[in-house]
Design a protein that fits this description.
Length: 827
């Protein structure tokens, strides 16, 4: 992100700040300034000059000889090849020794075709104020002759090149960076500059917009808010000088006044815009919908793109006219002949734009902002500002001023406001090791728009501004406090941490348990679980070849054949991004067989890559013997895989999980030895024996068992990793009971009766810890038709040693329950 300090000064007072000090302060606050570019510095030898006389060059028809007043007290003779000036015009003059930023050599005094020339008259392109220009830059005749040109035009500027992290889309604009500067220096953001927009709008409004265009948002999820304005009598032409210079300072090309205003608003407010030629929109109707299969669009880069149902498009009555948030269509773009425009200002779902841009290989400043997330709360205000700027950018052109249809098109369900965030009053100090007063915490957070909405005694609840999607949890607010307080002001202290495995856990005071940080530890849990069962981890490349897809016998219409292609693969075997982990694991087994290792158990945790997403996945491959012992040998089999997957399910507390035969056989698995594991009706794992035909081609003489588990679905759809209780502080009481019941009464009946008692009797449930069957006896003196079931029951209280009275009461309740529900009596 490039930020002009002249531009930034329109938002917040910074004239008294040193550019290098400001860059350092922003970097320390998390907005890393990678470069400080000074425009116009060292260009004092390029000045305002006045042409007093022009004569033809005696030896060259295409050259003229100018007598120029450069404020030196005497005229300077300069030979020039331009033809767009006349005597009396004011132009930029590069004196000998000057190095104009748009050319790569220094100006000197020399003869041109035999005529002495002491300098150069400059164009905008040669001053790096435009990407292209024709003829000399003609200046306002009121400028003082001899004044350095960048100073005279107010173009002397400093541009900061800021490397933003993906979580700060709010700073992809001058307004966003100005918010940061205002917060860091305790200054007031200048918002009054936007107040004139409504007045400018109403002052030029004509008939209602309803008669000019219609809007329908079909896909409210992909487009929660779409607004538009209609301008008539528009003249497409060059932008005013100030607008062109603003864009060129940021390295952007000036196109015309319409496109330049959309780019200006993009860099000023962070709001992408798009202008349609309204007369090229069939029926003057805008429809925001998903593309239909087979639709195509010729974009403004004059390439044709094939769309699918996942692409969000802007359409008219018959065809797409833009890929939403990514690129406009060539058939509706603004040209010099355009007189009526529809100006789009919308909020598109970041994921939808990201997927579409990635699929079509398109990236722009607009899509970059939509992908990161723009501010959904200022869409209408941004549109009003854009319309006001369009009117301003038309004012210098000849003819009548454009008019704006009164009102705006405004459709969509809107974006749900972010929930309030809770933060303990001393949480920031606990994390940072600081002693910041609560009042200062509130002040710091308020400076970035985070307002306290409720005081809950030992904590606050904060509302988050719509332009800060990165603030989701209390720890995010702690980071804001650290940034604004100053990382350099935080004293170095030694951390206090639990030793060993305990450093991964934290005490939950309310529940009295120790809870794993599930999201950040999930993959390590998976690895630890498999390593503990004797498997070794493999790390393979994320590539595969076409042969790997044929190797696994995938059908032509299998989605796994739609693999992303590598642009410049080193070898053809790595020309595709992998859509399955199985080929890599089979290669691992082949390498081990070549080294005479027949007994191998391996797993890999990696990603599978599809055209629109990436999936974290676990792959497992087992073959040969798993145990060699004097008492016998055991080999890996299907049920080992099944047990591993079920262990994962238990670790993630996956509910509603079940095994079944796949509706469609996996082509690489034995048709009679394969199964699918679903969680909540979603397929999560496929396991089985590798198809014998494939195993034979692999050179394996023994069965190979493989599994592929979609960890993305397991982690996202399943519950968090199970929680663990802290080690017991008080002793347990173990009681043995011999219960006589009918032969038909299973132990499960007794277990259900005891566990059911926990739900009915809170005092029993508090003490009960476990029950287990350890003996079954039939014979004398047990009556015929009955048997004795010996169970072991464990009681324990979390906060005390049990008394005899408590134990006796629990025993009586247990015996009463098993007798009532299972007909079992104490022997």
């Amino acid at each position: 992100m490039k930020v002009s300090l002249n531009w930034l000064n329109q938002w917040v007072e910074i004239e008294d700040l040193d550019a290098d000090e400001l860059a350092s302060r922003l970097t320390l606050a998390g907005l890393e300034v990678e470069e400080v570019e000074r425009i116009g510095e060292g260009q004092e030898k390029i000045v305002v000059g006045r042409i007093d006389a022009i004569e033809e060059h005696p030896k060259a028809d295409r050259l003229v000889v100018c007598q120029v007043d450069a404020g030196e007290g005497e005229l300077r003779q300069i030979v020039c090849g331009a033809k767009n000036m006349k005597a009396g015009d004011f132009v930029p003059v590069a004196l000998p020794g000057a190095e104009p930023p748009g050319i790569d050599f220094a100006i000197g005094a020399r003869k041109v075709m035999g005529v002495p020339s002491a300098g150069m008259l400059c164009s905008e392109e040669e001053l790096d104020l435009a990407t292209e220009s024709e003829g000399l830059m003609l200046l306002d005749r009121s400028l003082p002759v001899g004044t350095p040109i960048f100073e005279a035009l107010g173009l002397k500027d400093v541009v900061l090149h800021i490397g933003l992290t993906p979580n700060r889309p709010d700073c992809l604009s001058h307004r966003g960076v100005a918010r940061e500067v205002a917060a860091l220096y305790g200054r007031v953001l200048r918002s009054e500059r936007l107040l004139a927009s409504a007045a400018a709008w109403e002052g030029s409004a004509s008939d209602a917009i309803d008669g000019a265009a219609a809007l329908e948002v079909v896909d409210g999820e992909g487009c929660p808010r779409y607004t538009a304005a209609v301008l008539e009598g528009v003249k497409v032409g060059p932008s005013p000088l100030w607008l062109r210079h603003r864009l060129v300072a940021l390295g952007m090309r000036s196109v015309n006044n319409i496109v330049d205003v959309t780019n200006y608003v993009l860099m000023d407010l962070g709001q992408p815009l798009h202008a349609f030629d309204l007369d090229k929109i069939e029926g003057h109707q805008i429809i925001v919908r998903r593309a239909t299969a087979g639709e195509t669009i010729e974009a403004i880069d004059h390439k044709t793109y094939k769309l699918d149902e996942a692409d969000l498009v802007i359409a008219d009555g018959s065809r797409p006219v833009a890929i939403a948030g990514v690129m406009g269509g060539a058939e509706s773009e603004v040209t010099e002949a355009t007189t009526r425009i529809l100006l789009e200002c919308a909020y598109f779902d970041p994921r939808s734009v990201r997927v579409t841009a990635k699929r079509h290989g398109l990236h722009s400043e607009s899509s970059h902002r939509y992908e990161r997330g723009i501010d959904p709360g200022t869409i209408v205000d941004n549109l009003r500002e854009a319309v006001a700027l369009l009117l301003q950018a038309q004012a210098h052109l000849e003819g009548d001023a454009p008019v704006v249809r009164s009102g705006i098109l405004n459709e969509g369900p809107g974006v749900k406001a972010a929930p309030a965030i809770s933060l303990g009053k001393d949480r920031a100090n606990q994390v940072l090791g600081t002693d910041i007063a609560p009042e200062e915490v509130l002040t710091l957070l308020k400076s970035v728009g985070v307002e306290s909405v409720e005081d809950e005694g030992d904590s606050w609840r904060f509302s988050v501004p719509s332009y800060r999607p990165d603030l989701e949890r209390g720890i995010d607010l702690v980071e804001e406090v650290a940034r604004l307080h100053g990382f350099d002001k935080i004293a170095a202290t030694l951390p206090r941490a639990l030793m060993g495995h305990a450093h991964q856990l934290q005490k939950d005071a309310e529940r009295g348990t120790i809870v794993s940080r599930a999201e950040r530890r999930a993959l390590n849990w998976v690895r630890d679980l498999l390593l503990s069962q004797g498997l070794r981890e493999a790390v393979n490349y994320s590539f595969m070849g076409e042969g790997d897809l044929d190797r696994l016998r995938f059908e032509d219409d299998d989605s796994r054949r739609l693999a992303p292609r590598v642009a410049n693969p080193l070898v053809q075997d790595q020309a595709l991004m992998r859509t399955t982990l199985i080929p890599g694991l089979l290669n691992n087994l082949k390498v081990n067989r070549a080294q005479r290792r027949q007994d191998v158990a391996m797993f890999e945790v990696g990603r599978r890559y599809f055209m629109t997403e990436e999936r974290r996945t676990l792959g497992v491959a087992l073959t040969g013997r798993k145990r060699i012992h004097w008492s016998g040998e055991t080999s890996w089999d299907f049920f080992d895989l099944k047990g591993m997957v079920e262990a994962l399910g238990q670790a993630f507390d996956a509910t509603d999980a079940k095994w079944s035969k796949p509706q469609v056989d996996e082509p690489y698995l034995h048709p009679g030895v394969q199964a699918v594991w679903t969680v909540g009706n979603q397929p999560v794992a496929f396991i089985g024996q590798l198809h014998p035909a494939i195993a034979s081609k692999e050179g394996s003489e023994q069965p190979i068992f493989v599994a592929e588990v979609d960890l993305e679905a397991l982690i996202d759809e399943g519950a968090p990793l199970r929680t663990f209780s802290a080690s017991a502080r008080f002793p347990a009481v173990v009681r043995d009971f011999a219960l006589v019941a009918d032969n038909e009464v299973a132990y499960a009946r007794l277990q259900e009766a005891i566990e059911g008692l926990c739900g009915r009797d809170a005092s029993f449930g508090e003490l009960f810890e476990s029950v287990a069957l350890f003996d079954i006896y039939t014979g004398q003196p047990i009556p015929e038709g009955k048997r004795s079931l010996a169970i072991k029951v464990t009681y324990r209280a979390p906060d005390r040693t049990l008394t005899e009275a408590e134990i006796e009461a629990a025993d009586n309740a247990l015996l009463a329950a098993v007798e009532a529900q299972a007909g079992a009596r104490l022997r």
